[in-house]
Amino acid sequence: MKDLRRYLVLKYIQYLVLSSSNAVSTFLGLLGSLYTIIILQSAKVSSKSTAVLISSLAKADVLVSVSVASEMVVWTFDVRISSTAFTTALLQNLLTANSHISCLLLSCVAFEAYLITFFPTESRHFRTVKNARLTSRIIWILVIAECVLFQTDDLLKASSTSAPTRSPCVLLFHFSSTAAALLRSLSYFLGILLRIVNVYIYYKIFFSISNR
Fold it and tell me: What keywords tag this UniProt record (predicted)?
């Protein structure tokens, strides 16, 4: 459990403290996720809702691994990509999806810690493995849908110059562009809100434990 707590601290620093990821935090995050996945396979770790959320958090770094591995292959072997704009947008959107999934899952872990601290008995029927798995699936589905929308918008922007003005794709372009812009703004403000909520939750937990 101490290792899992250290992993959570690392992830909180990576996604909710640092303004943007850097090479060091990304590398440490990948190592921590790999180690956490190995730990969670052990029979010594009980299958609880928190463990399910942490497992999903660690698996989210697969998106980072794909992006980093792709860039390394292109750079090392000088691979020529037929659609550079599409690939660059895809790798960036995978990193964005990883960041959003991680922030949401970390907030779920913080909320569960709040319930355990202040409402341990009353919230027991909410803090189940089934609900944790359902929450993780919903978060993954929503963020992947967001990633698809962003990728579609980037693809349409790249091909808009060659498309005819009266093409039926113009309506799709305007719709996806507006929806993507709104979603990016919403994600930005939601990220700020999650940071504030997480700080408040751990502030309350810290002083509650100190008073005891």
Answer: Cell membrane, G-protein coupled receptor, Membrane, Receptor, Transducer, Transmembrane, Transmembrane helix
> In this predicted model, what pLDDT tens digit does every residue of 59-89 receive, in sequence order?
999 999 988 887 777 666 655 555 566 778 8
Q: What Å distances lie between residue 152 and 112, 130, 168, CA to CA?
A: 35, 33, 15
Task: Give the structural domain span for 155.
Answer: 1-210
**What residues contact residue 55 under an 8 Å CB cut-off, 6+ apart?**
36, 37, 40
Q: In angstroms, rounded to a whole number, what is the distance separating the alpha carbons of residues 5 and 144?
A: 27
> Which residues lie below 8 Å from residue 3, measured CB to CB, with a gap of 6+?
35, 36, 39
DSSP state of 20: S
Tokens coding 108? 């779920």
Side chain identity at residue 132, one-letter code: A
Q: How many domains does the chain have?
A: 1
What SS3 state is found at 126?
coil
Check pLDDT > 90 for residue 140: yes
> How many helical (H) and strand (E) elements, i.e. helices and strands, does the chain have?
7, 0
What CATH number did the domain enclosing 9 receive?
1.20.1070.10
Position 175 scores a pLDDT of: 76
Give me the chain's average pLDDT, please.
85
φ/ψ of 44, rounded to 5, equals -70, -25
Residue 97's Cβ-count burial label (10 Å; 0-12, 13-18, 19+) is buried
Angle at 141 between CA 57 and CA 14, to 5 degrees: 30
